[in-house]
Design goal:
Rossmann fold, two-stranded antiparallel ribbon
Length: 542
Amino acid sequence: MTESELEKPATDPRLTRIAGIAGLIAPVVWAVVVVVELAHASIGHSLTARPERFFSDSAWHVPLVLAVGAMVVAQLAAALGLLAAWPPRRPAAVVGALLGLAAGARFALALLLPTDPHGYSVSAQAALAANIVLVALPVALLLAALLTARHDPGVAWLSAGIGVVMVWIALWATVWAARSAASQPQLLAIEPVEALTSIWTAVVGAWLLGRRAISTTGSKSGPNRPGIPTPGRKAAAALALLAVAGVVSASGTFVWAYRTTIAAQLTGRTRVETIHADAVDRTYRIHRGSKEIARPGLVFVLHGSFGGGFQMESDSGFDAQADRLGWIAVYPDGVADGWDTFGSTDKWGKHPGADDVAFISAVIDRLEASDGVDPGRVYVTGLSRGGMMSYRLGCAMSDRIAAIAPVSGNMATVGGSADVPCTLARPVSVLAIHGTADGVIPMGGGKVDITFSPMADVIARWRSLDVCEPIPSTSVDGPSTTTSWDCAKGSTVSMRVVTGGWHTWPRASGVLASAGGSPDSFDASSLIADFFVAHPRVVAGS
């Protein structure tokens, strides 16, 4: 093939113009898609922990699918316009096939989500589509860089740079979402990768229009050189090294932070199971103790808002207590923003089709049948909104739950009153742990994002429900003071106040706030497990 043939434009000028305009339109359509998703996806507190909410607003599903379709068509048209400018055809066809695969997968992702009427869950097919997008796009851009390097080094370096950044951002976003307990963390990487794709297609579009203008006027001969800054090889190598270092750092931090939980799952000690409750399939992590006993106790450990079972299993360290006692620890996954607690509204907590009480009840039924769980030793604990759900489960399932241990939780109506609807079939023992420096759910109550009841009122309500004696006992353990009341049928209501304690699950290995240690540096899981051991369910008439 002669040099003149290499330099000869391979496309009709009209098609080049169409491809160039499409490239310029792509980022505009992408921006519209993102604005609609953000405005109607009800992302609440955290998109990081629930990236699927970007895609799962059923009311806007059809227009979003159409908008995504327009975006991927525009991106694909610009990319193919670029590739059609040069031979050889076979490498260009490979790049085009990768871009087409990514475009098809992105469109499929829009069609596949939501997978239930309320957008609470995502499918394996949607996860596969997201993975295809995240792999095919950067690979296509890197191959395009190799293809165009000889003729247009500016475009080549731009493609290579964006391809490397895509890999870095995709891995970083995925790791960050995984650390935030996202069930399918790769979904968080879709939008930033699409943003980079739109930037690339816009530059390609401008380049194509400029190439057409040069070709039409004939004012320049030889290979067209776009006016795009071209970083040197050292800069490109530094960028690649930075990307690798960032990914290794993020992944290493994640693996180290969750090494125990990851090991438990890899060895099969912890399993992920699914059960159908109400209108949706629910998931939970289950850790069976390392020593087997005939009738093990069962503890539900509930995560906070926008959290997940994986995160709670690692942060609480409750697996160690299950191993110590031979019990079973279950870490359920909430839907959307978390749990439907007392005081929930349509904007916070209420999840039509996802009945949390029915979910927990169904898991108890399953484990009593499969593992011989002791019906008199079923307990619930949880952090933050998980602590709030512990109170509700104690009320709604007092005939099945022996004791609850809310950590940094609360119990209140929408107006902030502890006078919630609660009638106990049997007394339920309570151990509440709360820090005085908790700014998320203040001990004194009041409005933060929602309105909380003063913890003194919450404890007073449970003392009334459990028919407690008026005179408490008090014990001091460093910065913590525990006040306990003896109540009906051997039940107990206790409140551990941690002076200077934060909104966290106390761990003995917690980060030290000063040379003297953090007020939260005690093992809450061990304390709670011992409380549960001492408080089996009180049988009526005993």
